[in-house]
Amino acid sequence: MLRTKILQFLPAVLLAVTGLGVAALGSSYQVGSLTAMGPGFMPVALGVCLVLLGIALFAGELRIAPKTELGFPLRPVLWVGGGILAWAMLIDVLGFFPASIVQLLFSSFALPQEGWRSVLILALGMTLAAYILFVTLLGVPVPAFGS
Fold first, then answer.
1. How far apart are CA 67 and CA 77, in angstroms?
2. Which label site among 18, 80, 124, 145 has the fewest CB atoms less than 10 Å from its CB?
3. Mean of the per-residue pLDDT values for the chain?
4. 0.85 exceeded by pTM
């Protein structure tokens, strides 16, 4: 029973700990202010958001009855990890759009889904939104297609 409880809360705790680490590392840089952001502003802000998300996930797990059988989620870890690895390997060769779509398609195999059409539409929409956010608005120098 104790093992089940620990495994139930482990993702929330790991998310919050990761957020604390990111915020701590980001705070070693100049943070600046909202109108004059320094290099540490985004890592600190994202780290705080991860901590808040971890707390929300933890609180949500408190409200759910304990699951009877929890094992290590090997399938999601492998597919999401493989997607991140594929993105890292393809971003310089194929560009932002193809690498991101491949990464999201890999990650979609982590859990059973309803249909490939919805996954493809979601992958295209998220890729476009990420491109607008990171490349267009934040100015990350990544080519859209190929190098």
1. 19
2. 145
3. 83
4. no
Of 102, 100, 96, nearest to 143 (Cα)?
Answer: 96
Q: Are 19 and 40 in contact (CB under 8 A)?
A: no
Residue listed under structure tokens 């029973």: 1
Q: Return the closest-CA partner of residue 100 out of 112, 114, 84.
A: 84
Answer yes or no: are the C-beta atoms of 61 and 8 closer than 8 Å. yes
DSSP assigned state of 39? T
What is the token pair recorded at 74?
A: 């090997």
Return the SS3 of 65.
coil
Asked if 94 and 146 touch (Cβ cutoff 8 Å), the reply is yes
Q: Report the candidate in 144, 134, 129, 136 with the shortest Cα–Cα distance to residue 95.
A: 144
Dump pLDDT digits (tens) for 126-145: 999 999 988 888 888 888 88
